[in-house]
Write a structure and sequence with these properties.
Elements (H helix, E strand, L loop, with lengths): L3 E4 L3 E4 L7 H7 L9 H10 L4 E8 L5 E12 L9 H14 L8 E6 L10 E3 L5 H20 L5 E8 L3 H4 L8 E12 L7 H6 L3 H13 L4 E4 L2 H19 L13 H9 L3 E8 L2 E11 L2 E9 L1 H7 L1 H15 L4 E3 L5 H5 L4 E11 L2 H12 L13 H9 L1
Parallel strand pairs: 5-7, 12-13
Antiparallel strand pairs: 1-2, 2-3, 3-4, 4-5, 4-6, 7-14, 8-13, 8-14, 9-10, 10-11, 11-12
């Protein structure tokens, strides 16, 4: 039952969030981010058995914690890629077979520093007044040491995700250790104007055609019954919600890991009003759900589920986007993070892209070189940025 291992006296590794000493949280003071709080991490750990979780604490010479990162080990299949990257993946599989170093049938086992269930800088915390460039390199080295000591070569690749543009001067240090960087789909972020006290205030700030589009979606979805989902309702609803969730994820190009919706129970219990769940019913049929997390001054859209047979007729997804905005205004947050995918429709409600970079390294030199060729071809999907607000248009005309 050993849950903590120390290597070279410069880090500690825990295999359960409950084993992380309280002094770590007290010293680092990283719990301001909900994604680095024990209550949140415990919910993920307890209800996603197909993922291996661990927690790494970096220490200085006095054994004082200087950094913390969450670790998630997942299986990734090349065969799961089913989007416009298919031709690139086919090329990688062909090269891998010829060199007998990559098998498309067996999964890549990826050790990830970060959170595979949310996009953004939610996986690594570095204490103030530290040499962040050195810390990030030390974290990467500790991940490799942990892999070598605990998994005896079964880990194929190491990943650190998702870093904002302003952090790249720190994280690009990873390239010295042969990590490959690549951009992924951006987060779509809406900044809420402080003058928006109601949804009508938001609508009033929009150009006419976008305001008309919003009102049309609200009218189309008017016959939907929209209610908060309580913990007590989840036992009955989870099978239907899981079906709707998988309908959405099956449309994605690929996912690093499937989220077990049983986690919702623990998230609602541990986070209470900071975790939001709404259901969308057509008569007595559940046709959609949305979830969200209040993290400091931001409302992060989490997972959604949609019955696409009814989506167009009842504007289910579009209504969800507007409901996130209504919730954001009610919760008095500064930003709404709509997450990745469907960038164009999210831009039509006012969101703008926030670039994100991932670092990935295969454990072996030759596969890592092939991987770098593959990653160099990955580009975020191009989309037409919509400009729905009057003030933005005026600024653009002035400039």
């Amino acid at each position: 039952m050993l849950s903590c291992t120390t290597h070279s006296n410069n880090y500690q590794l825990y295999t359960s969030i409950k084993e992380v000493p309280k002094e770590v949280w007290t010293t680092l003071q990283c719990e301001d981010s909900i994604y680095l709080s024990p209550d949140y991490l415990e919910a993920l750990e307890n209800h996603n058995p197909n993922i291996t979780f661990a927690y790494l604490v970096l220490l200085d010479e006095a054994n004082t914690p200087t950094a913390f990162t969450t670790i998630q080990i997942v299986d990734f299949y090349l065969e799961s890629v089913q989007n416009d990257m298919q031709s690139i993946v086919d090329w990688v599989k062909c090269m891998g077979r010829k060199l007998r170093i990559i098998s498309p049938e067996t999964p890549f086992k990826v050790l990830t520093s970060g959170n595979i269930f949310v996009s953004g800088e939610h996986g690594i915390f570095i204490k103030q007044d530290q040499d962040k460039q050195q810390i990030i390199k030390d974290v990467a080295k500790a991940l490799v040491a942990y892999s070598n000591s605990h998994y005896k070569g079964s880990i194929d690749a190491y990943m650190l995700k998702d870093f904002l543009t302003e952090s790249l001067y720190i994280t690009d240090e990873l390239k010295d250790d042969h990590f490959n960087s690549f951009q992924v789909e951006p987060n779509m972020i809406l900044s809420l104007d402080k003058s928006w006290n109601t949804f009508d205030d938001y609508l009033a700030a929009m150009r006419t055609k976008f305001r008309v589009k919003a009102k049309k979606a609200m009218k189309q979805s008017d016959s939907l019954r929209i209610e908060d989902i309580s913990i007590e309702m989840l036992d009955e609803l989870l099978p239907q919600m899981t079906t709707l969730y998988k309908t959405v994820t099956n449309k994605a190009g690929f996912n690093l890991g499937d989220f077990d919706l049983e986690t919702y129970k623990c998230l609602k219990q541990n986070l209470e009003d900071q975790y939001l769940l709404k259901g969308y019913w057509l008569e007595n049929k559940l046709v959609g759900f949305m979830s969200g997390i209040i993290n400091q001054d931001t409302l992060d859209a989490h997972f959604v589920g949609i019955d696409y047979k009814f989506n167009k007729s009842y504007a289910i997804y579009q209504r969800m986007l507007y409901d996130y905005i209504i919730l954001g205004i009610e919760q008095n947050v500064n930003y709404i993070n709509f997450g990745r995918t469907a960038s164009e429709i999210k831009s039509s409600v006012g969101a703008v892209p926030q670039d994100l970079t991932i670092y990935l390294r295969h454990k072996k030199t030759i596969p890592n070189k092939i991987l770098s060729l593959f990653l160099n071809k990955i580009k975020p999907t191009a989309f037409k940025q919509k400009l729905p607000f009057k003030e933005v248009i005026q600024v653009l005309k002035t400039n």
